[in-house]
Amino acid sequence: MKYVLVTGANRGLGLGICREILKRDESLGVILGTRDQMKGLSAVESLKTENVMWEERIRHVSMDVADEESVRGAASSLAIDEVKLHAIINNAAVGIDLAWSGPPTADVARATLSTNFWGVVNVVKHFRALLDINDGSGRIINITSGAGQTNMCKMSSERRDEFLKDGLTLDELSCLVENFCQTYEQNVGVVELPALVNGWWLQAYGFSKACLNMLTRIQAQSFPEVQVNCCTPGFVATDMVVGYVGNTKLKSVEEGTKTPVWLCLEGPGSSGLLFGNDLRQLNYEDEYV
After folding, report:
1. C-beta of residue 40 within 8 angstroms of C-beta of residue 9
2. How many domains in the chain?
3. What pLDDT shows up at residue 103?
4. pLDDT below 70 — which residues of the chain?
5. If you write DSSP's letter for every residue of 107-149 in order, what string do you get?
6. Which residues pair with 191 in a beta bridge?
């Protein structure tokens, strides 16, 4: 049996994605990747309780995606068991400086990028070898957000051009990430954030997702044997949006799983693309509507 690894899978969208895969493809199992072992094991038991027929198709692995050694160890444990992956779904994310999250602090940018960007780098680096690239398998799906496109629209045209240049490398993107983090740290408490400083729109969550979008393109170019795409599931009612008081209607978790599960089980047959929650292909630099 091949598996789908889903990070951040103990609740919300990640758990919902696992549930939908179990429902829709009996040939696949799921591996719930979670930072908190107890919460992860509890999520596993909740799925098994929903359907006893799923029991043999569910595994768990503990890892903190922001900690490369933790990710390396998790991947090694699955390799020892000769686990083969159909897909990796990078869902784990944090939203520390969202509008309803409270005032930002100097450490917000690096903490956000550590999970939302570097976490994906770590997971793909150490789990890619477990992907089975035969029979249409070999998928990497990065869960992004319309906030990434919004951030890109609000940064300067010069910064946007740096992001969108042909042949952007991971090293070059890493330099942009570092420049953003330094600018963010230097301006917390100096200007009211978010604000446009040094060409950056200083909102860390949106920036991290803009970086994830560009990372998707880099991974697609670097790993041509794998289908690598990203998607924004929409504004989904999860713990991340607790405190939101705006007028946007929140989508259910089930609605939010539509595109990532499609990319996992079916997909466009090509790489480096961004999709909305209605399976519509989007442009990286256009604000998500």
Report:
1. yes
2. 1
3. 84
4. 100, 235-250, 288-289
5. THHHHHHHHHTHHHHHHHHHHGGGB--STT--EEEEE--HHHH
6. 188
| 270 belongs to a structural domain | yes
Cα 222 to the center of its chain, rounded Å: 18
Residue at token pair 């999250």: 101
Cα separation, 60 vs 2, whole angstroms: 14
Secondary structure letter of residue 267 according to DSSP: -
Residue 66 lies in a domain: yes
Which residue range forms the structural domain that includes residue 10? 2-95+111-145+212-282
CB 90 within 8 A of CB 143: yes
Distance of CA 164 to the CA centre of its chain: 20
CA distance 209 to 119: 12
Identify the CATH number of the domain in which residue 68 sits.
3.40.50.720
Dihedral sign for Cα atoms in the order 176, 274, 138, 221: negative
